[in-house]
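SAMPLE LOG
Freezer: B-3
Tube label: C17
Construct: single chain, 125 aa
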Amino acid sequence: MLRTLIISAAFLGTLATPAPVQADALNWAMASFSQDLRGRLTADQAREQSRGGAVLPSRRMIAAVRRNYPDMSLDDVALVMDGMQLQCPGIAGSGPRYLVKIRVAGSRRINVVLNAQTAEILCER
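STRUCTURE (predicted):
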């Protein structure tokens, strides 16, 4: 439901934006979207992994991020079982990881990568 709301808002926003800006924004959004979706589990798959004990639930990840960014607004949460898809500088390993996309200070976007088994923040990008 959140994804539908975000997609709808993005579509409506493109209607009010001049054409040259729309093309650049659309190209950037599509590149970011497709890159982040590689290896991403669906909500049902992520729920099953959490229920089975393989990973912590997403609400624990959101709480861990909120401790560092109390004024954040949440954009998206994704679980990737192959952590090689979400590399962090200086962090080895390829276990499951969460990608939590947030906005702070109005519009600054931050992608936070967390270890899905410990809720430890591995990096921010």
